[in-house]
Write a structure and sequence with these properties.
This protein is of the alpha+beta class. It is about 45% helix and about 10% strand. Among the domains are: about 35-115, no CATH class; about 120-265, Jelly Rolls, CATH 2.60.120.10. It has helices spanning about 10-15, 45-55, 65-90, 90-115, 120-130, 140-145, 200-205, 230-240, 245-265, 270-275, 290-300, 305-310, and strands at about 150-155, 160, 170-180, 180-185, 190-195, 220, 225-230. Strand 4 and strand 5 form a beta hairpin. The longest helix is centred in the N-terminal third of the chain and has 24 residues, at about 65-90. This is Popeye domain-containing protein 1.
Length: about 350
Amino acid sequence: MNYTESSPLAGSTAIGFTPELASIVPVPSNETTCENWREIHHLVFHVANVFFAVGLIIPTTLQLHMILLRGMLAIGCSLYIVWATLYRCALDVMVWNAVFLSVNTLHLSYLLYKKRPVKIEKELNGIYRRLFEPLRVPPDLFRRLTGQFCMIQTLKKGQTYAIEDKTSVDDRLSILLKGKMKVSYRGHFLHNIYPCAFIDSPEFRSTQMHKGEKFQVTIVADDNCRFLCWSRERLTYFLESEPFLYEIFRYLIGKDITNKLYSLNDPTLNDKKAKKLEHQLSLCTQISMLEMRNSIASSSDSEDGLHQFLRGPSSVSSLHVPSPHQRASAKMKPIEEGVEDDDEVFEPVSPKTFKVHELP
């Protein structure tokens, strides 16, 4: 016996059939049409995109470029959140822009924190203004330099900072903050040390080549003195991690050695004269006072070498650095020195200044 079973799907289709289904025209999945454009979005949407555009076209040469960029992006994300919440009711757009807003806000906070005004201790402010600020050392870097592995020490009048042939030069490096110190060799006065000057810069330079040496001079406090003292070993490690500050120290120490050389040739050189000469000392930054002191020690068994050096005759011209007030020798042409400014020390040299002479 033949019979046909009715399908449940067919029955339901027949029951739920509506005439509207016949008018539906399927659209192929590989085709897209934009025949009916939607209305323009709310003004908040466009203002947000304007902030994004402004942030992206800020020139990188501007000093506050990153701060302005992050600020514009944060404002744009905030407006996107307002637009997605109030006018589109789009949860996904709101969530993503909330994430972008949090990231930009954190980055902006970090940049503003780095730009905060750094307060330098009043006692160290003079050193920063006179030595480090002209060389464009940031205040936060100077604070790191003076805040971790150094201390301020005091010497009363008559106390010794170093004794010749006894005190090791490997322990510390110091800058005088207040007072005055006298440097002598075998009881003979050599020169003074004034505030904002290194106390043992020649010894610091010498220890880069030789270890375990002793002071060859005696340094005594002529007044009640205060000085900033670094641990030599920890300072060396810190400068290795900061190449910019390492070059700054090389320049400052070389310049301080030059000042001391001028003081040796003119024992009457006082603090005011030293300040005037600061910008005129372009040579001798590589001269080691240790070699000079060794020469004095090797030729002054009867103290004749010391007196000859202090008199500055032509016999010791290899160690003699001419004073600005002395005349040049008739047989030698004087070396012309240009005025050296601290701001120009680290400026790149233009290639136009070099001339190549071809051999015939």
